[in-house]
Amino acid sequence: MMDGLPHPQRFYAFITIAIAMTMAVLDSAIVNIALPTIGQELAISPAETIWIVNAFQLAVTVSLLPLASLGESIGYKKIYWCGLAVFTAASFACATSHSLLALSVARMVQGVGAAGIMSVNIALVRFIFPRQQLGIGMGYTSLIVAVSSAAGPTVASAILSFAHWQWLFLVNVPLGLAALVVAARTLPTTPVSGHRFDLASTMLNALTFGCLITGLNAFSDPDGRARAAVLLAGALFFGAFYVRRERRLAIPMLPFDLLRSPVFAFSMMTSISSFAAQTMAYVALPFYFQHTLGRSEVATGFLMTPWPLTTALIAPLAGRLSDRIAPERLCSTGLVILSIGLASLAMIGSAPSGFDLSWRLAVCGLGFGLFQSPNNRIIISSAPRERSGGASGLQSMGRLLGQSIGAAFVAIVFGLVHGSQTAWVIWCGTSLSLMAACASGMRRTSIAKA
């Protein structure tokens, strides 16, 4: 089998990955900015507009692992191309929706398309880049995710300053069509397993993760704690059946065969923990900036910028280094730096200057950027090539779970703690980052034994 794609096919193949990932990540962020405008135009309440966000998130969550499994069966290229086609068509449907129901359904379909993109993107990167340059591919992928996440509010504000909210979705159409044409010609054809798609596992996966994510999100509503408890209990109930079924399968949808590897399991633990710690800071700090320091929304956006900007700058370098230096060592170093940055934020004074905040956030971004690309490299390279889809799907699921857990934890702390709420959240994020650093360090022992 060819080790990676030759130039210039490799360049164009990765461009399609970049375009599709940018659209998928951006759409999960930019819509939040437009919710008040959409709600006013469609004559719906603020509470009802949340369904526009939740429909997308739920569809992504419940579709990731099934589509990753289907990718192994019929080929990653087909899943990626079809996911991009569905996402592009659904973007047009979102732009032409004139009711909450139509928009929510279109967003749900768009989420399925986004899951098709996210579920196998890392697996495709493994086949696009030569084995010796896999870290470079991971670094560029992390760069795209970091820049897209950071640019979401800015892009949304820029579009809304001169166009209607429909253009938040319409801009995806020409980009998606161009990417579809290039992807059809340049993405690599990967080996297929041919195993039958498991509908029973798909249903159990949807019930388990649907209840889990919805339950975690419900914690953000002070009146939704009882509903959250019921949903989380449902996740445990369906999850028990799901786990029992998957453990008996040779090629499970929930990749227990991969999680039996200590290196892979520790890598997933560090991924979930680090994204939870990052999300805790991302959610809590804006409240501190606006409520405690009295900064405006625009100023808050600028103050948060050093973290994702530094991550975006460091991620490609960290990816390159992971091809030459033990990636687990880079991960542990990055997580320790992240912990130091978070601790410095938790101990900041009551009237910090912009510089005091900026350098601390930059340290956090440095640590996260140094960790993310090497960790993704370990996740994908520790799985057999024929199980790259399962590894890719679980990597994306780990990111979503970490973000949901982090956001739910902030809601719990804000509901229970009075005074110094942000400091409590950041200290908990620091502890979580240190735990992730320890888990990352344990991978070195596992690799040495292997």
TrEMBL record:
GO terms for cellular component: plasma membrane. The keyword Cytoplasm does not apply. The chain crosses the membrane at residues 12-38, 50-67, 79-102, 108-129, 141-161, 167-187, 199-220, 226-243, 263-289, 301-318, 330-351, 400-418. It comes from the Bacteria. Coiled coil: none annotated. InterPro entries: MFS, MFS_dom, MFS_trans_sf. CDD domains: MFS_MMR_MDR_like (cd17321). One of its GO terms (molecular function) is transmembrane transporter activity. It is found in: Cell membrane. The keyword Transport applies. It holds the Pfam family MFS_1. It is a multi-pass membrane protein. Residues 13-450 form the Major facilitator superfamily (MFS) profile domain. Keywords: Cell membrane, Membrane, Transmembrane, Transmembrane helix, Transport. This is Multidrug MFS transporter.
